[in-house]
Amino acid sequence: MADPILVAKHEADEFFLLTQMANRHGVITGATGTGKTVTLQKLAEGFSTRGVPVFMADIKGDLTGVTQVGGGNAKVDDRNKLLGITPVFEGFPATLWDVFGKQGHPLRATVSEMGPLLISRLLQLNDTQEGVLSIAFKYADENGLLLLDLKDLQSLMQFVGSNADQLTLQYGNVSTASVGAIQRGLLQIDEQGGDQFFGEPAVKLDDFMQSIGGKGVLNLLAADQLINAPKLYSTFLLWLLSELFESLPEAGDLDKPKLVFFFDEAHLLFSDAPTALVEKVEQVVRLIRSKGVGVYFVTQNPADIPEKVLAQLGNRVQHALRAYTPQEQKGVKAAATSFRENPKIDTEKVITELGVGEVLISTLDEKGVPTIVDRAFVVPPVGHIGPVTPEQRAALIANSLVAGVYENALDRESAFEILSKKAEEKMAADAEAATAKEAEKEAAKQAKEERAAARAPDSLAESITKSVARSASSSIGRQIGNTIVRGVLGSIFGGGSKKKSSWF
Q1: Cα–Cα distance between 372 and 378 in angstroms, integer?
Q2: In sequence order, what E strands does 184-257 have?
Q3: What pLDDT score does 458 carry?
Q4: Bridge-based pairing state of the strands 94-98 and 105-106
Q5: Which pLDDT does position 452 carry in this prediction?
Q6: Per residue in 193-235, pLDDT tens?
């Protein structure tokens, strides 16, 4: 069984996170500037030391320092001295990722992998628009149209809009107004850099679960720019979490997690989220622990997290909260009541008094029962605190386990190419049909002109000659016709009346 992780200390009391309980999830909360990022780094180092890989978003760029040996920080030295700790400073292996491919390896997913529910959240669609998007995905699935990047989805929606009547009969109502709303949303995501996120090669989850020299690799997602597109940020992390849930086999009770997933700025996930999505998150959090994955939400206040999700987060580290407004006071009370009560301290009061790096902590014991809340100082990390230099970042990227794997984007035949080809073929067929129709009209026009020319007035002499000829021809024709008719019918010459014909 892996050693427990020393998280915090107060005088002789030490507070550990048991690795066999680490996949029961957790939460790190506190106001800005109270030390959440340092606590996050400390926990990540603890997991890495025990061979557990970690995924976490680097919102401010500070976490990359974990790759370098710590030391030389006066505040860290003072805190270690206060706690009676003699640290062994070291760095940790890491893979740097970046949706935009600038500060790390490109991190991509395909449109099909993300699916209509998450893309609907990304585009902030209403129920009707989400229904139209689901119809588009169903059509693509049934007709072998790969949806890999944004232009695939854009071309699909154009096709759906152009064939709305036909698809309505087959799948249900397809509103062209909804198609337009989806297209506008896709354009906005494109402008935010979504075109770089959607595509191939898509990330392989196995690349998040690596170790080097017995240490788990820390997967750091550069998010200082991504956080400016909060829907893209939160939707991507939720997709990644759901992919882990869907892909990993059941693991049962493990001595330590297969992977620990830190969801920073977690309030973005639940802000304005529809009920269906919140229920999906709740389900994933509840069941993913059996896959060996621990999920830790990082946010300012526990109230940012829905109660049904919060109830599943057994390991809790609470930094200071401010209580200047009635709303903030309500948040402090909610945070205090989320802990198992300690009769020795006034939890609600202490939350507002905590200093930087000081916390209220409660973790799960060997039986999975939360310990009573207590006050302590977070043990400082042993890696460097703060960002790496551009040169160090470049070296980390060049020497990582996935160097060169994701750098070059692929653009194989998918929905865009197939639908473009169909559109070109239809245009060619329409042009050919139009040409044939035009030729037919021209031939008809020419024939009409020829007939008109044949009926044009003659000269006086020609008219007299033709009139005489027509008269003679008509007389002969009538006689011949009458003769033929009579002969055929047999009534005149065959018997009966012998009356002389008036023609003779």
Answers
A1: 17
A2: 211-212, 215-216, 218-222
A3: 54
A4: parallel
A5: 80
A6: 778 889 999 999 999 999 999 999 999 999 998 898 888 898 8
pLDDT in tens, 100-155: 999 999 999 999 999 999 999 899 999 999 999 999 999 999 999 999 999 999 99
Helices (H), 377-414: 390-398
Beta bridge partners of 13: 10
How many angstroms separate the CA atoms of 455 and 469, rounded?
A: 17
Q: Spell out the residues 6+ positions from residue 226 whose beta carbon is closer than 8 angstroms to its own.
A: 57, 99, 100, 232, 233, 236
Distances (CA, A) of 141 to 128, 134, 136, 179: 20, 10, 9, 18
Distance between first and last Cα of the chain: 134
Structural domain 5-108+206-389, CATH architecture = 3-Layer(aba) Sandwich (3.40)
pTM, whole model, 2 decimals?
A: 0.83
What is the dihedral angle through the alpha carbons of 70, 74, 75, 77, rounded to the nearest 10 degrees?
A: 70
Tell me the C-alpha to C-alpha distance, in Å, between residue 324 and each of 29, 103, 327, 346, 487: 18, 38, 8, 18, 122
pLDDT per position as a tens digit, 308-363: 999 999 999 999 998 888 888 888 998 999 899 999 999 999 999 999 999 999 99
Domain boundaries, the chain: 5-108+206-389, 111-194+414-426
Residue 90 phi, psi (nearest 5) = -160, 165
**What is Dmax (Cα atoms) for the chain?**
150
Residue whose pair of structure tokens reads 């506190």 in the numeric block:
30
